[in-house]
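User: I'm curious whether this sequence folds into something compact or stays loose and floppy. Could you predict its structure so I can see for myself?
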Amino acid sequence: MLFLCLLPSAHSETFPADALSDNTRRNGIVRVYLSSLNEPHALDLELSAAYRVYESDVVLPAGANVKISVNDADGQIKLNYAGQNWLLGEETILLRSTEEGVLQIQQAIGAGTYPADLRIRSVAKNDAYYLEVIACIRVEDYLPDVLSYAIISTAPAEALKAQAVVSRTYA
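Assistant: Here's the prediction. I'll summarize afterward.
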Protein backbone atom coordinates (compact mmCIF):
# COMPACT_ATOMS: atom_id res chain seq x y z
CA MET A 1 0.00 0.00 0.00
CA LEU A 2 1.27 3.46 -0.90
CA PHE A 3 1.10 6.07 1.85
CA LEU A 4 1.03 9.69 0.81
CA CYS A 5 1.72 12.73 2.97
CA LEU A 6 1.27 16.25 1.68
CA LEU A 7 4.09 18.68 2.24
CA PRO A 8 4.42 22.40 1.46
CA SER A 9 5.19 23.14 -2.18
CA ALA A 10 5.88 25.61 -4.89
CA HIS A 11 6.32 25.01 -8.59
CA SER A 12 7.16 27.22 -11.49
CA GLU A 13 8.70 26.68 -14.87
CA THR A 14 12.17 26.47 -13.30
CA PHE A 15 11.09 25.07 -9.92
CA PRO A 16 13.47 27.07 -7.67
CA ALA A 17 14.91 25.01 -4.81
CA ASP A 18 14.72 27.93 -2.36
CA ALA A 19 10.91 28.10 -2.76
CA LEU A 20 10.27 24.50 -1.70
CA SER A 21 8.94 25.43 1.73
CA ASP A 22 6.02 27.49 0.41
CA ASN A 23 2.31 26.54 0.23
CA THR A 24 0.99 22.97 -0.12
CA ARG A 25 -0.42 23.63 -3.57
CA ARG A 26 0.60 26.33 -6.01
CA ASN A 27 -0.01 26.45 -9.75
CA GLY A 28 -1.82 23.11 -9.56
CA ILE A 29 1.15 21.19 -8.11
CA VAL A 30 0.90 18.93 -5.04
CA ARG A 31 4.00 17.78 -3.18
CA VAL A 32 3.77 14.21 -1.91
CA TYR A 33 6.27 12.70 0.53
CA LEU A 34 6.89 9.11 -0.56
CA SER A 35 6.91 7.59 2.91
CA SER A 36 6.41 4.06 1.58
CA LEU A 37 10.03 4.08 0.39
CA ASN A 38 11.07 3.64 4.04
CA GLU A 39 14.05 6.02 4.18
CA PRO A 40 16.10 4.47 1.36
CA HIS A 41 19.87 4.83 0.96
CA ALA A 42 19.52 4.35 -2.80
CA LEU A 43 16.86 4.57 -5.52
CA ASP A 44 16.68 2.80 -8.86
CA LEU A 45 14.70 4.88 -11.37
CA GLU A 46 13.45 4.12 -14.86
CA LEU A 47 12.53 7.24 -16.86
CA SER A 48 9.82 7.26 -19.55
CA ALA A 49 10.79 10.75 -20.70
CA ALA A 50 13.93 12.85 -20.54
CA TYR A 51 14.68 14.43 -17.16
CA ARG A 52 17.24 17.04 -16.22
CA VAL A 53 18.91 17.86 -12.94
CA TYR A 54 17.96 21.35 -11.72
CA GLU A 55 20.84 23.87 -11.87
CA SER A 56 23.05 21.37 -13.66
CA ASP A 57 23.97 20.38 -17.19
CA VAL A 58 23.02 16.75 -16.49
CA VAL A 59 20.28 15.55 -18.85
CA LEU A 60 18.95 12.00 -18.62
CA PRO A 61 17.31 10.58 -21.78
CA ALA A 62 13.97 8.80 -22.02
CA GLY A 63 14.36 5.12 -21.19
CA ALA A 64 17.31 5.76 -18.88
CA ASN A 65 17.88 3.54 -15.85
CA VAL A 66 19.35 5.72 -13.12
CA LYS A 67 20.68 4.97 -9.64
CA ILE A 68 20.63 7.69 -6.99
CA SER A 69 22.41 7.03 -3.71
CA VAL A 70 23.61 8.90 -0.64
CA ASN A 71 27.08 8.69 0.92
CA ASP A 72 26.73 7.74 4.59
CA ALA A 73 29.90 9.65 5.51
CA ASP A 74 28.96 13.14 4.26
CA GLY A 75 25.35 13.03 2.97
CA GLN A 76 26.30 13.82 -0.64
CA ILE A 77 23.84 12.57 -3.24
CA LYS A 78 25.34 10.68 -6.16
CA LEU A 79 23.63 10.02 -9.48
CA ASN A 80 24.85 7.13 -11.63
CA TYR A 81 23.82 6.71 -15.26
CA ALA A 82 25.56 4.76 -18.03
CA GLY A 83 28.75 4.32 -16.01
CA GLN A 84 29.07 8.04 -15.19
CA ASN A 85 28.73 9.50 -11.71
CA TRP A 86 27.70 13.01 -10.67
CA LEU A 87 27.81 14.45 -7.15
CA LEU A 88 24.70 16.57 -6.66
CA GLY A 89 25.14 17.97 -3.15
CA GLU A 90 22.72 17.32 -0.30
CA GLU A 91 19.58 18.22 -2.26
CA THR A 92 18.59 17.93 -5.90
CA ILE A 93 15.56 18.13 -8.14
CA LEU A 94 14.88 15.97 -11.19
CA LEU A 95 12.68 17.85 -13.68
CA ARG A 96 10.61 16.23 -16.42
CA SER A 97 11.10 17.42 -19.97
CA THR A 98 7.39 16.94 -20.71
CA GLU A 99 4.22 16.89 -18.63
CA GLU A 100 3.56 13.35 -19.86
CA GLY A 101 6.84 12.04 -18.43
CA VAL A 102 6.68 9.45 -15.65
CA LEU A 103 9.28 7.63 -13.67
CA GLN A 104 9.27 4.22 -12.07
CA ILE A 105 10.85 3.80 -8.63
CA GLN A 106 11.88 0.17 -8.21
CA GLN A 107 11.85 0.34 -4.39
CA ALA A 108 8.27 1.66 -4.24
CA ILE A 109 5.51 -0.44 -2.75
CA GLY A 110 2.42 -0.57 -4.93
CA ALA A 111 2.34 1.21 -8.27
CA GLY A 112 5.74 2.87 -8.02
CA THR A 113 5.08 4.94 -11.15
CA TYR A 114 4.91 8.70 -10.70
CA PRO A 115 4.02 11.42 -13.23
CA ALA A 116 6.21 13.83 -11.32
CA ASP A 117 9.29 15.91 -10.81
CA LEU A 118 11.30 14.58 -7.85
CA ARG A 119 12.93 16.52 -5.03
CA ILE A 120 15.54 14.36 -3.32
CA ARG A 121 17.27 15.42 -0.13
CA SER A 122 19.74 13.65 2.14
CA VAL A 123 18.68 13.53 5.78
CA ALA A 124 20.91 12.53 8.72
CA LYS A 125 19.59 9.94 11.17
CA ASN A 126 21.51 7.80 13.66
CA ASP A 127 24.97 8.58 12.27
CA ALA A 128 23.91 7.73 8.70
CA TYR A 129 22.00 9.37 5.87
CA TYR A 130 18.91 8.39 3.94
CA LEU A 131 17.08 9.90 0.96
CA GLU A 132 13.91 11.90 1.51
CA VAL A 133 11.90 11.76 -1.72
CA ILE A 134 9.15 14.25 -2.59
CA ALA A 135 7.08 13.81 -5.75
CA CYS A 136 5.79 17.09 -7.25
CA ILE A 137 2.63 16.07 -9.08
CA ARG A 138 -0.03 18.04 -10.98
CA VAL A 139 -3.40 17.87 -9.20
CA GLU A 140 -4.98 16.33 -12.32
CA ASP A 141 -2.50 13.44 -12.14
CA TYR A 142 -2.71 13.16 -8.34
CA LEU A 143 -6.49 12.83 -7.96
CA PRO A 144 -7.10 9.55 -9.86
CA ASP A 145 -4.44 7.76 -7.79
CA VAL A 146 -5.77 9.19 -4.53
CA LEU A 147 -9.34 8.25 -5.42
CA SER A 148 -8.33 4.66 -6.17
CA TYR A 149 -6.98 4.38 -2.60
CA ALA A 150 -9.70 6.44 -0.87
CA ILE A 151 -12.85 4.76 -2.22
CA ILE A 152 -13.73 1.61 -4.12
CA SER A 153 -14.54 2.05 -7.80
CA THR A 154 -17.92 0.32 -7.40
CA ALA A 155 -19.17 3.02 -5.02
CA PRO A 156 -22.19 5.03 -6.21
CA ALA A 157 -21.34 7.81 -8.68
CA GLU A 158 -22.34 10.53 -6.20
CA ALA A 159 -20.00 9.08 -3.57
CA LEU A 160 -17.14 9.06 -6.07
CA LYS A 161 -17.87 12.69 -6.98
CA ALA A 162 -17.97 13.70 -3.32
CA GLN A 163 -14.68 11.93 -2.64
CA ALA A 164 -13.11 13.69 -5.63
CA VAL A 165 -14.22 17.07 -4.27
CA VAL A 166 -12.87 16.26 -0.80
CA SER A 167 -9.56 14.97 -2.20
CA ARG A 168 -9.07 18.04 -4.40
CA THR A 169 -9.95 20.35 -1.51
CA TYR A 170 -7.51 18.56 0.81
CA ALA A 171 -4.75 18.58 -1.84
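Summary: The two ends are 19 Å apart (CA to CA). Helices lie at 139-150, 157-170.
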